[in-house]
What does this fold into?
Amino acid sequence: MDTNGRAEVSSRVWTIPNCLSFLRLGLVPVFLVLVITGQDALALATIVVSSVTDYLDGVIARRFDQMSRLGQLLDPAADRLFIFATLIGLAIREIVPWWLFVAIIGRDVVLLVLGVILANYGYGPLPVHHLGKVATFCLFYALPILMIGQAFPGAASVTDPLGWAFAIWGAFLYWWAGIIYLRETARVVAIPVSPTTAPSDTLGA
It folds into this structure.
């Protein structure tokens, strides 16, 4: 803990939370194969395991003061990779349209470009906006909900409308957050930098 009572973020690699995040990343290709081959029940079980490890790594990191910079990168990366894997698998099986996949990937490509622009101006990445968190939540659960209808056809009358509601709202909020990031990047790079002041590696609120 620091003097203000906040958990310090370390540069450690081999922590329990990071190992759990590595496990989640390792499950992504397994999950993708299960989705593509139509083994939806096993794929859903994999998501459950991933969700449990996601919860545990957060709890352990906070309770045992094991927060790390690597963990802050691995956790959202695992979430996005599971979303991408689900989109690819379901699009290949023609359960979801390819335009949804392109929309989600396109937004992340935009964020990648914004990150490069910010780095060129001496800034770190933009802080995560709450809309981005809500969008990721919607997408992370929308696609598994659709998969439930594939694994258990009797539930499709309920899961399909619910899954598509989450997916459409998630995609909308995903791009809304992306527009906010775009505007924030434009605001930040327009700030004159004093030649005597080194650029910050973090952004203000």
